[in-house]
Amino acid sequence: TTSSTIQQLTPPILLVHGIEDSTVPFTATSDAGRILRSCGLKQCDEIYLEETNHQDVIMHFMLGGPAKDSVLNWLLQCSQEEKTAQIQSRL
Predict the structure, then answer these.
(1) pLDDT tier for residue 10 given thresholds of 50, 70 and 90
(2) Contact 15, 45 (CB under 8 A)
(3) Do 47 and 70 touch, CB atoms closer than 8 A?
(4) Which of 26, 46, 65, 68 fits 17 for a cystine, CB–CB 3.0-4.6 Å?
């Protein structure tokens, strides 16, 4: 099916948004996530950072901060889940 093909061809997706963003409302991220999942994506995660605006997210990646920490933790979790799935598929 189209949905299973999308799942196989698309890596896990993470959307990150600052709650205090006055440039792009954080609801745009929840809308994007909902639309992606309606297209058949099962792993489309969202992280919303309190007291974080539009520019802060980029600064967190450059200098360290909650956005960078959250994304790195998410990547580690995805990596561990992938390793577990590979092990289980061999059993």
Answers:
(1) confident
(2) yes
(3) yes
(4) 26
E strand intervals along the chain: 13-18, 44-49
For residues 30 and 36, give the distance between their C-alpha atoms in angstroms, rounded to a whole number. Answer: 10
Quote the tokens at residue 51: 């007291």
**Helix 54-63 with 66-90: angle, nearest 10 deg:** 70
Whether the predicted pLDDT of 26 surpasses 90: yes
Provide the whole-model pTM.
0.82
Inter-residue contact 7 to 24 (CB < 8 Å): no
